[in-house]
Design brief:
single chain; 497 residues; alpha/beta; ten-stranded mixed β-sheet; four-stranded antiparallel β-sheet; 13 helices; 20 strands; globular
């Protein structure tokens, strides 16, 4: 599919102009059942007067952060949201650590990059081709590149260094321990036993920025944090994420936002998909304790964002730098009785996404249904770099520059497993519906009538035509590559009376 999509690119250019003319700013078309290409992903270069000719990009990523956790990060909100654009409907379409990070490393969905889970033959770093890693796009275009923090699950001290990074400082041992861990340190492996992981990532990120800025070359730096992921000790025990010493007790007794969600400890889950209907109600005390620990762990990330902006300013490059902030996936805290991720619920899918930089209006927002897969195409667009292979996302540069942007009306969402063909539930998300199935077990929510996703319509005869139309889209998107992942299919049928 990837090669086929690439081979017809020239032909698509002929129809692109006519196609875009039929698509409105919200992705709707005038003819039911029609399909339109809404955004080219092969030439994401922005207009030259909208930004510096060689801007820098710094990408800050958290691990398992809920979208509403951002409410408790005042520095990040003040420096990034208030000074840039917030995407209010951003999702991680494969909401699990390793597949999400593989999407960010390649600009491709799992069916194209090969990483479907955290482990097993279809998962982990070993499933990724390290030569298909987007840092090489920027290196080959003359950028300095630096990576600091958590890479893909399973990356170890003996694994190959992805070739595109000028500086490579990835976690290798004790990745989830917070206080006892090792990092590659650009070829000089170092173990830390008396440091806090977020502070180390913060310090090394700022060091890279100082060195790169002094060189006069443009740079791309990724700072991928561990917080607020739960802690896993070297012995394999799981526990709450520890806070930096100065943050201990800050959120003691804070009320989890999930407590105010109608879906929290849903009374009747008999109609829900199998991974929800087998659950017992979540412990309110355990949810509260985890929420407190997560918020306290994020405070050090909040300060790291502040010192990052300060460092860029001190080096005289802040005005030439795009700063992007997001999380690899969301996290459920008792909604539908579930705690965790790797499920196709809104709490696991939704992530924060902030972008600050030249040409972006301070305090602006966008409700486009964007995904993490769009970020590599966007970074390429912001820097004028051409991706070295077809990417499955759409450049968000027009939206960042305040322009109306045609956009897909249906987004692929999926989860994997360690056994079989590596796939679990796969589905689609539209403005009104959330739909998915693993072939035998499925869900269909009408978000217009049921925004809390309490009623599964998968067996409701009134939604038979809706389900059939969504299944057609799902069956096409699970094998999509390149531009075929970014289509406007047109209006869906309404439920029957």
């Amino acid at each position: 599919m990837r090669g086929w999509a690439q081979s017809i690119t020239a032909a698509l250019l002929v129809v692109l102009v006519a196609t875009l003319a039929t698509v409105t700013a919200n992705g709707d078309t005038s003819t039911a059942g029609s399909v339109s290409l809404v955004q080219t992903t092969q030439n994401p270069t922005p207009t030259p007067d909208a930004q510096p000719s060689r801007p820098n990009v710094v990408f800050v990523l958290t691990d398992d952060m809920r979208d509403d956790d951002l409410d408790h990060m005042p520095i990040t909100r003040r420096l990034l949201a208030d000074q840039g654009m917030e995407f209010t409907d951003a999702i991680s379409p494969h909401p699990l650590c390793c597949p999400a990070r593989a999407q960010l490393a390649t600009g491709q969905y799992a069916q194209n990059n090969g990483v479907q889970h955290n482990r097993g033959v279809h998962g982990g770093f070993q499933a990724l081709d390290p030569t298909q890693e987007a840092s090489s796009w920027f290196r080959d275009a003359g950028y300095r590149t630096g990576f600091v923090g958590k890479f893909l699950n399973g990356y170890g001290p003996r694994d190959v260094r992805p070739s595109g990074w000028s500086r490579w400082d990835a976690l290798t041992r004790g990745v989830y321990d917070y206080v006892d861990f090792s990092m590659t340190h650009d070829g000089e492996p170092t173990r830390y036993t008396d440091s806090y992981i977020t502070s180390v990532i913060e310090e090394h990120t700022n060091d890279d920025i100082r060195d790169f800025a002094a060189s006069g070359d443009p740079f791309v730096v990724y700072a991928w944090h561990l917080a607020p992921h739960y802690r896993i000790s070297p012995e394999g025990g799981r526990g709450l994420p520890p806070a930096a010493p100065q943050d201990e007790g800050l959120f003691e007794g804070a009320r989890p936002s999930s407590f105010d969600d109608p879906a929290f400890n849903e009374d009747d889950v008999a109609d829900q998909p199998a991974y929800l209907r087998r659950l017992s109600p979540a412990s309110r005390a355990e949810v509260s304790a985890e929420n407190t620990a997560r918020l306290e762990a994020l405070q050090s990330v909040d300060r790291a964002v502040g010192s990052l902006v300060e460092t860029l300013d001190e080096q005289g490059v802040l005005d030439d730098t795009y700063i992007v902030f997001s999380s690899d996936n969301g996290y459920s805290l008792g909604e539908h009785r579930f705690i965790g991720k790797d499920v196709l619920t809104d709490e696991a899918l939704q992530v924060p996404l902030l972008v600050r930089g030249p040409g972006i209006a301070p305090g602006s927002t966008s409700d486009l249904p964007v995904t993490l897969v769009d970020l590599p195409a966007t970074f390429a667009g912001l820097t004028g770099v051409t991706p070295a292979w077809p990417v499955d996302g759409t450049s968000l540069v027009p939206t960042l520059q305040g322009q109306a942007q045609p956009f897909r009306d249906t987004t692929l969402i999926q989860t994997g497993r360690t056994l079989g063909d590596g796939w679990s539930h796969r589905g689609v998300r539209t403005e009104r519906y959330l739909y998915g199935t693993d072939g035998t077990d499925g869900f269909l929510y009408d978000l217009l009538l049921d925004p809390d996703r309490m009623v599964n319509r998968i067996d409701d005869p009134a939604y038979a035509q809706v389900q059939a139309a969504l299944e057609l889209r799902r069956s096409e998107l699970v094998t999509c590559a390149g531009w075929t992942c970014n289509q406007a299919f047109g209006p869906l049928p309404d439920p029957s009376p």
